Each structure stands twice: as C-alpha cells, then as structure tokens.
Amino acid sequence: MKKLHVDRFLPFLFFLFVCLLTTVLYATIPLDVSWILLLELYGCLLLVFLMLFVPIPKIFSWYVVIHFGMALCLGTIFNFYNRIFFWDLLLHAYFGWMISHFFYWLCRGKISGFFLLAVVLFLISLGGAALWECMEYGMDTLFSMDTQKIAESIANGKSPVADTMEDILITMVGSLSFLGYLFIKERRIALKK
Predict the structure, then answer these.
(1) CA separation, residue 35 to residues 39, 50, 95, 136, 175 (Å)
(2) pLDDT tens for residues 72-121?
(3) Which of 100, 140, 159, 171 has the fewest CB atoms found within 10 Å of its own CB?
(4) CA 184/CA 188 separation, integer angstroms
(5) Which residue, among 60, 59, 78, has the nearest Cα to 69 in the 3D structure?
(6) How far apart are CA 63 and CA 37, in angstroms?
(7) Distance of CA 42 to the CA centre of its chain
(8) Longest C-alpha distance within the chain, in Å?
(9) Contact (Cβ atoms closer than 8 angstroms) between residue 126 and residue 171
(10) Is 93 in contact with 169 (CB distance < 8 Å)?
(11) Rounded Cα distance, 21 and 73, in Å
C-alpha cells in the first residue's frame, strides 16, 4: 500500500486556512457572499480530489490555492479588483501561465517539436480564457453580478466587450510568457548536451 506523505496535503491545509480566513472576514464585512463560500467549497473539494486521486505534481495544487487566494481573498474581500487597476489583468496573466504549465506537464513527451508544442499550449490557453469568460458571463447572468465590469465599462464610455477581449489578450500574454520561459529552459538543456 502506498504511503501518503503529509507534505502532499500542505496546499490543501493552506487552502483550508484561506477559506477559514475568508469566511471570518466575510462574517465581519456586510456582503452577500453565499456564492463565494460555495466557490470555496467547490475549490476545496476539487483540491482534495486532485491530491488523492490524480497523481499530479504539488506545484499545480499550489497554483490553484494561490489563484483562489488572489481572486477571492484579496480580489473580493480586500477589494483589490477596484483598488488596484491591474488586479484582474494580473490574475488573467497568471491563469495563462498556470494553464500552459499544466498542459505542458500533461503533453510532455507526447508532442515532438517545440513549435508544435507551443502552438498547442497557446491554443489551449486561449480556449481556457474563452471558457473563463463564459463562466464570468454565466455568473453575471445567473447571479446578477458584474464580473465583466459591464456597468463600469459603460460608465467609462467603453464597450462591455472590451473587458472580455482584454482578459483574453492578457491570458495570451501569460501563456506566451510561459512559452518564453519554456523556450529558454529547453535551449539551456539543448546547449548542455
């Protein structure tokens, strides 16, 4: 029988701490947060599933924990989305890096040639960005939220589509930055041989 190591659960324990902190802070701040607590629960269950049943490197669990912490705790509780003008863009760039890294790990050894691998990872990150924007649209439609900043865009005289396109473009930048990192890493390995 395979032994489970405690350090494998560190991302989960940290995520539980973040969820607890978020819940306590939400209890003290008058906001309608039932949807956020539900998201945290789903994220927690997803993390447990990934750690127990899918043999993935721990870095990806940390990616998820950091993304939830940045989006829910800092972005929503501490209002970083409104306080720091580039917060949403930073999260989308991070998402582009994260999804490219994850699919690089999944595709390693299965796609030969750096150019083809880069194209596949880039297109997957674009698909992930599009799905993310569909999720934001769904949250806006189903829960009367404004994750796509429609009201803010109209107030600033911009098209509401601008936020969606900006988010997708920034996700592309995150993906391209991972591909740049990967290219440099692969070149160093090739030069050492």
Answers:
(1) 6, 22, 21, 13, 29
(2) 778 877 788 889 989 999 999 999 999 999 999 988 888 888 999 999 99
(3) 159
(4) 6
(5) 78
(6) 19
(7) 14
(8) 62
(9) yes
(10) no
(11) 8
